[in-house]
Specification:
17 helices; disordered C terminus; eight-stranded mixed β-sheet; 2 domains; FAD; FAD-dep_Monooxygenase_BioMet; flavoprotein; single chain; five-stranded parallel β-sheet; disordered N terminus; about 40% helix
Length: about 500
């Protein structure tokens, strides 16, 4: 590959920028330059958390603005507590539903009367009180806008229409489609399951997943004329219609002013590519292949457009960061959570919190690789647990008609019968319920504190120089942001 030629004007800009970095780093502690690729939830949360930790963050987004999609999202207690800790309570309260008291599991193909209720799953009040938060719903756009403003007000720089097409990890730089080169100390890939950073860390191609999800929202005024559908906005309950190889999750947002629908189904089209949200016309989505319950069918026909995203089969990413300590994958770039799952947004925000907390106390460049590796150590088991849990739940509510589906319905009916007290439920059912609650107790700040308590002495030794060689890249001539060699660059192209 041919070397990159950098114009003199850009070199002058680089020198000026590096001088500013040197001044910033001359005080107590270490201020790093982070490049964050992507303005999804993980990118926005990561950018704010790192900026708040005292670093300088530059976010690059290929689109002309932060992506906005007419869809809903789940807000489990662990996510809402982070948002309130960040001072976002008043903004959240405008958009959140009331706390969800229970999940109503319905037959997706019944005649639409009371007999369609197969079972219910309670959010036990005593446990939610102990968690100091409820399970909520809110618009995806709402959270994205809140986080964008939060990050902007904190000083994060955003560059839109800035698609990253090439990585230069040895130089800690990226090249945009315009030809512009952007430099930093660390490159964060928060650009989704088809991430350019992920492909650098693991060049093996991903495969399109077996399932897709279409999402949309409708306003209360749009469904007010349909009394059966209108009733779904009057209580904060979560309705799940269970079909054969599909399920539909319906829930109210904004105190009942909107209704969100996530329709999860087995994808059979070869033309639908995984990992990218697409806006499609409702008439182009073949509803006739699904024997939908009448209310659900009417609801699915209401919007003019749908947001569709297909899952990606990534396979495990062995290393979330590179050996140079220059790049890191977070969010779906590192560990995709199904877009129809309960915890995808929460996991994305948790990633940002952990990364910011780790780098809030960095004192020396020799610690960078340690912190990047520790990010994976802290987060990996949590993310894998959530991945498996969300997949299991989606599989359960989307079983094809047959013996497994009948056994599931029998279990849910039992949960409805004994749900108020929990007595009479099998150990297996109780274990599943308890595992879900355990996920809500997760606190990313506590996880970092635990890591510091365990590895604090190692950090001190690294500062003293006793283990510095463990964390410095082997190619010591390849400099960080303030030691760039412009000539003889190694060009590594990873193009979308």
């Amino acid at each position: 590959m041919s070397p990159v030629t950098v114009p003199q004007e850009q070199l002058n800009n680089i020198e000026s920028r590096l001088a500013q970095v040197s001044i910033a780093n001359s005080g107590k502690g270490l201020k790093l330059e982070f490049i964050v690729i992507g303005t999804g939830i993980s990118g926005l949360a990561c950018a704010y958390s790192l900026q708040k930790a005292g670093h300088s963050v530059h976010v690059l987004e290929a689109e002309s603005s932060i992506p906005k999609y007419q869809s809903g999202m789940r807000v489990p207690p662990n996510l809402s507590k982070i948002m309130r800790r960040w001072g976002l309570g008043p903004e959240l309260d405008k958009l959140l539903s009331e706390g969800c008291p229970r999940i109503l599991c319905r037959s997706g193909t019944s005649l639409g009367n009371n007999t369609d209720l197969v079972g219910e799953i309670l959010f036990y009040k005593e446990i939610m009180v102990a968690l100091e938060a409820d399970f909520y719903f809110m618009p995806y756009d709402g959270l994205a806008s809140i986080l964008y403003k939060l990050a902007s007000d904190a000083g994060v720089r955003f560059s839109f229409d800035s698609e990253v097409v090439t990585l230069h990890p040895h130089e800690s730089s990226v090249i945009l489609s315009s030809g512009e080169i952007v430099y930093g100390d660390i490159i964060i890939g928060a650009d989704g399951s088809r991430s350019i950073v992920r492909r650098y860390l693991n060049p093996e191609n991903e495969e399109d997943g077996s399932h897709s999800c279409v999402m949309f929202t409708v306003s209360m005024s749009e469904i007010a004329k349909d009394s059966e559908l209108y009733s779904l906005t009057k209580t904060p309950e979560w309705n799940i219609w269970m079909g054969s190889n599909w399920s539909a999750m319906v829930y109210p947002m904004c105190k009942g002013a909107e209704l969100a629908v996530d329709f999860y189904y087995k994808e059979t089209s070869q033309s639908v590519r995984g990992g990218r949200r697409q806006i499609i016309n409702t008439e182009d989505f073949d509803l006739d292949k699904y024997n939908l319950e009448p209310r659900l069918r009417r609801l699915m026909k209401m919007p003019k457009r749908l947001v569709r995203i297909r899952e990606v089969d990534q396979g495990p990413l062995e290393n979330w960061s590179d050996d140079l300590g220059r790049t890191l994958a977070i969010g779906d770039a590192a560990h995709q959570i199904s877009p129809a799952g309960n915890h995808g947004v929460a996991i994305a925000v948790e990633d940002g919190v952990v990364l910011g907390e780790l780098f809030s106390r960095i004192k020396d460049r020799s610690q960078i690789r340690l912190f990047l590796n520790s990010f994976q150590e802290i987060r990996q088991s949590r993310c894998e647990t959530v991945q498996l849990s969300d997949k299991h739940k989606l599989d359960q509510v989307s079983l094809p008609n047959g013996p497994e589906q009948e056994a599931r319905d029998s279990t849910y009916r039992m949960m409805k019968e004994f749900g108020q007290e929990g007595e009479g439920l099998s150990d297996e059912i109780l274990q599943t319920i308890w595992e879900e609650y355990q996920m809500y107790y997760y606190d990313p700040c506590e996880e970092v504190d635990n890591w510091r308590a365990e590895w604090g002495s190692l950090l001190q030794r690294s500062l003293a120089g006793s283990v510095e060689e463990t964390f410095i890249p082997e190619d010591t001539s390849a400099p960080y942001c303030n030691q760039i060699r412009v000539e003889h660059r190694k060009s590594i192209d990873w193009v979308h």
